[in-house]
Specification:
This protein is an alpha+beta fold. The chain has a domain of 106 residues: Alpha-Beta Plaits (2-Layer Sandwich). The chain is 28% helix and 25% strand. It is elongated. It starts with a helix and ends with a helix. 10% of the residues are buried. The structure holds iron/sulfur cluster (SF4) (2 copies). The site of one iron/sulfur cluster (SF4) has 13 residues, from helix 3.
Length: 156
């Protein structure tokens, strides 16, 4: 009979201890957010997918040197360029020169390991990790990003 009452007492005692902890935590600042209605700011070190960085005029900083494409161990970067001719005056004479124009910067995020080799290899600071973490889809194609287009959309 004594053991019976002792168990009831212990049960009630542990319940009170639990309620005491709940009561104490009730007045502490909230550290969680009601996702997806609210989101938190990601830390500077967070690595989302790669994105193009723009210059002051809103144009991509990328000069299409292809260093990042060569550095990527997973082959997920695909850069497309075209060559354009232009006239320039040299010593009073008009000369025709060529320049490379960036027309496509595609990322296959399905194979990207977020290793950062591309970001490190870029001498122009033209690419960086985004803070995107809300990616979900049943369709692989949704993770093939046209980064040039995304940059234009960001600025429109
Ligand atoms: S390394 Fe930088 S500048 Fe060169 S193609 Fe890649 S993003 Fe563009
Ligand atoms: S983070 Fe790594 S795997 Fe992803 S695109 Fe850059 S180099 Fe390739």
């Amino acid at each position: 009979m004594g053991a019976y009452f002792s168990e009831i007492f212990l049960g009630l005692w542990s319940l009170l201890i639990g309620l005491g902890i709940t009561f104490k935590e009730f007045f502490k600042p909230v550290v969680t957010v009601p996702y997806p209605f609210k989101t938190i700011k990601m830390s500077d070190r967070y690595r989302g997918h790669i994105e193009l960085v723009e210059d002051e005029s809103g144009e991509p900083k990328c000069i299409a040197c292809m260093m990042c494409q060569r550095a990527c161990p997973s082959g997920c970067i695909s850069i497309t360029t075209k060559t354009e001719k232009y006239e320039v005056e040299v010593d009073g004479e008009m000369k025709t020169k060529k320049r490379k124009i960036l027309i496509g910067w595609d990322l296959n995020f399905t194979t990207c390991s977020l290793c950062g080799q591309c970001v490190e290899s870029c001498n122009k600071d033209a690419i960086n990790f985004s803070k995107e973490y809300n990616l979900a889809s049943f369709n692989k194609e949704d993770f093939h990003f046209d980064l040039l287009n995304r940059l234009k959309e960001r600025n429109s």
